[in-house]
């Protein structure tokens, strides 16, 4: 049985509240679980101790028995000091979309053309000043 440590949603509409549970990975998100390991209330401030509560010993027990945490739970475990911080795989991180890349290229071309136009009159003025000085 492939176990996961994940969030099961509770609470009413627009007022989320989550239980941290150990569940079979084939079960639905809010379905049957093996054990409740804690709670997560995203509506509380980030520095509140009540925001994330978990039974660290039981979480460690499930991790030792091969349960895989979801990405969100892995972040909570890193914050609690139970796991080392891992590199996340996001290959498109920070890359602008196709249209934004095209706009940036056009803007760079316009700026280059404006810089060339600004250099050309300055070079002509310098040449005419040298000719007038002779």
TrEMBL record:
Biased composition (Basic and acidic residues) is annotated at 100-113
GO cellular component, as recorded: cytoplasm; small ribosomal subunit
Disordered as annotated region, ranges = 80-134
| UniProt entry keywords in alphabetical sequence | Ribonucleoprotein, Ribosomal protein
GO molecular function terms noted in the UniProt entry = structural constituent of ribosome
Where on the tree of life does the source sit, at the highest rank?
Bacteria
Statement: the UniProt record of this protein carries the keyword Ribosomal protein: yes
GO BP annotations of the record are:
translation
Composition skew (Low complexity), residue ranges: 114-125
Protein family according to the UniProt entry: Belongs to the bacterial ribosomal protein bS16 family.
Report what the protein is called.
Small ribosomal subunit protein bS16
Species this chain originates from: Thermohalobaculum xanthum
Q: What is the lineage of its organism?
A: Bacteria, Pseudomonadati, Pseudomonadota, Alphaproteobacteria, Rhodobacterales
